[in-house]
Amino acid sequence: MIDSIPPVVPAGRMRELAQPELVLPGGMLLRPWTPYDAPALVAAHGDPDVRHWNRPSRLDLAGAEERIALWHERWQAEKAGTWAIAPEGGRAVGLIGIADIDLAGGSGEIIYWLLPEGRGNGVTVKATDRLARWAFDDLGLYRVRITHSVGNPASCAVATKAGFPLEGTMRGALLHADGWHDEHLHARLRTDTAP
Predict the structure, then answer these.
(1) Which of 166, 130, 161 lies closest to 145, judged by CA?
(2) Are 143 and 50 in contact (CB under 8 A)?
(3) How far apart are the first and last CA of the chain?
(4) Order of strands, edge to edge, in the sheet holding 143-149?
């Protein structure tokens, strides 16, 4: 007889935690999205680079506010956590989150994008490392992954610099507007040395 394996993270653990603000170097932070950030979400859904690599549908302000409310519901359902990347006291310039959360299996997937005004200063690497540390130390996950199109070298550089080594290539894994893309799979374990 096989003994059952206990969950890595007990159900209810994420729901019990208030979604935190996570401070980054350089006056930036990760914080829960608010209706104040809706214009940034509308802008992101219209940005050609964000649209190409993330496939979002276009949003108006009302749709952005509904999406932000949905992200708060997904936290309570223990399915995902979505943070705004923002200067302290300012509106979001990007998004980072941990999605596809499997508490029992101890895993999740980090997702991210930045608006043009947030690019070029290394904030995504810092945000990715900080969110991974929260996922391991506070939530209790064991493995966190990042996937991205092989045609997106900027995302590959973020993953690698944030301590997520490349594990392999998944063929034809995601459909973009220009066709099927192979995707890189990166992952970091709780036991890995942080960058």
Answers:
(1) 166
(2) no
(3) 42
(4) 22-24, 28-32, 81-87, 94-102, 107-114, 143-149, 179-189, 166-176
Question: Tokens at residue 7, please?
Answer: 């969950």
Give the separation between CA 71 and CA 65, rounded to whole angstroms. Answer: 10
Which residue's structure tokens are 């970091």?
A: 188
The tens-digit pLDDT sequence of the chain (195 residues) is 577 899 999 999 999 999 999 999 999 999 999 999 999 999 999 999 898 888 767 889 999 999 999 999 999 999 999 999 999 999 999 999 999 999 999 999 999 999 999 898 999 999 999 999 999 999 999 999 999 999 999 999 999 999 999 999 999 999 988 899 999 999 999 999 888
Dihedral angle of Cα 56, 165, 123, 172, to the nearest 10 degrees: -20
- Tokens 């350089």 identify what position? 26
